[in-house]
Amino acid sequence: MIERVRGLSRAAPILLIVALAIAGQAPDVGWLRAATTDSEGAERMTSVLDALADEPLVLIGFDPDVGTYAEIRPTVRALLADLLARDGRLAFVSLTAEGRALASAEIARLGRGEANPTRLLDLGFIPGAEAGLVALTGDIRVDEGDDGVLAREVEGAGIAAVDAILVIGGIDLGPRSWVEQVIPRITEVPLLAVTPTVLLPEVQPYLVGGQLAAGLITPRDGAAYRQVLELGNLERLVEPIEPRQLPILVGMLIAVAVLGQALASRTLAHVRSAGSRSVG
Amino acid sequence: MSGFFGTGMADTVGIWIAAIVTLIVLGALLGERRLFGWSQHLLAGLATGFLALIALTEVIGPRLLQPLVVNSTGRPELWAGVALVAAAAGAPWLPRQLSIIPASIAIGALAAFALGGAVIGTLLPQIDASIVRPGGSVATMVAGASAVVVTVLVLIGFLHGRPRGRVLSSVAGAGRWLLIGGLGGWLGFLIVSRLILLVDRIGFLAGDWLGLGR
């Protein structure tokens, strides 16, 4: 019996992966949808984007981390496509190495998707984290080889040329750093954010307090935002398949079951030891 | 489909390498630790190499050396930068008093900016936003008051090693429980993120590698 339990516990991780793989390939379940029609986060994001100037220049602080990027990737790609569909001009900057790697990959992906290259500017990596953000409010350095109109505008006017800032955040560097270091040093520029759910406790006070103009923080926010997008021929820049919800639900149920099993066995051990003490 | 790969030969090779390393990492769940250790070394090596590449091509080259080559006398602060880079690179061989200077400046600057930013950018605006003002909605007042109460309780929970009365001990205990509750919620969010990452990796194997669902 004990051997069987041991064997089962050794096989549990692989059973989890098999269960998630099967759930990932199973047909969509109609009632299981992440998108809601009344997402405040999605509505706020859309209204802030609607209020931007024509051909807005958006500075994108691209610093997600590889451990959480999978969660926000569909939303990030949809938002970039939405900005381009609104004739936005996007300037990417990263302050973490992981963010720089992912920014390079996404810019390359936009290139493969034939996004208008005159609307994209890669400002590269800025060292120094918080100090780097402060330096960014002074002047923005553009690669000398880049002599496009967008590059010259950003180099000439610096952060004053920016109509909005979009922070793609991660655990290392997220909206908090931008709120603390950049917003107090610049004039009114809306700060937008896309972050994984794990940053919700950190970001929510900024959203409620108005320091963040809008944010897509949870998978539900992201799904609701993606649902209302009309991108025309830029649909090619978003992920072709929406993230499946069934494997997430299965995984969460398994996690709850594991937690319940641990609690139950702990309670059982406690009851047994109390019983043996009373017998003794 | 992760969308990180194109259709070229290099992309196909990249998909295969990524798939093999993903399988090796998942294989650790079945007890295969030797290959998993190798993959950890690979990750550490790649990360270090990438960091070095960024430092050289995006920081030291264009921001330090190129300006010096163009104008070697006009920007004296860059020479200080060169000295700091040299001190950091030669840290293993230099006297400790010298080698700690770059790290000290980095840590000091980080602490100064982080502390100042936390007070000006977070603490003061958030206190202002939490103040319960008359005339607001009931929900806003309750939320503001709750935020103040929770903040005070958790701060009191950090009072270690001070003489306490019975009331203060109870309040500190409540603060610590609230803190633990907050950490529990944060870990719950983290599980969601990690679960999505695992599902995404399985999706990568099925979609990008095996071509299922394309």
Give me a quick take on this structure:
Chain A is α/β, with parallel strands linked by helices and 280 residues long.
Could you characterize what this model shows?
The complex is a heterodimer of chains A (280) and B (214). Chain A is an alpha/beta fold and 280 residues long. Helices cover 52% and strands 11% of the residues of chain A. Chain A contains 10 helices and 6 strands; from the N terminus they run H-H-E-H-E-H-E-H-H-E-H-E-H-E-H-H. Chain A has helices spanning 2-25, 40-50, 69-85, 97-112, 130-138, 149-157, 175-181, 200-209, 219-227, 246-279, and strands at residues 57-62, 89-94, 120-125, 164-168, 191-194, 214-216. A 6-stranded parallel sheet of chain A has the order 3-2-1-4-5-6, with helices on both faces. In chain A, strand 1 (57-62), helix 3 (69-85) and strand 2 (89-94) form a beta-alpha-beta unit. In chain A, helix 1 (2-25) runs antiparallel to helix 10 and helix 2 packs across helix 9. The two termini of chain A are 28 Å apart. By secondary structure, chain B is mainly α. Chain B is built from 6 helices and no strands. Chain B has helices at 9-27, 33-70, 76-89, 96-130, 138-157, 166-209. The longest helix of chain B has 44 residues, at 166-209. Chain B is extended, with a radius of gyration of 26 Å. Chain B starts with 8 loop residues before the first helix and ends in a 5-residue tail after the last helix.
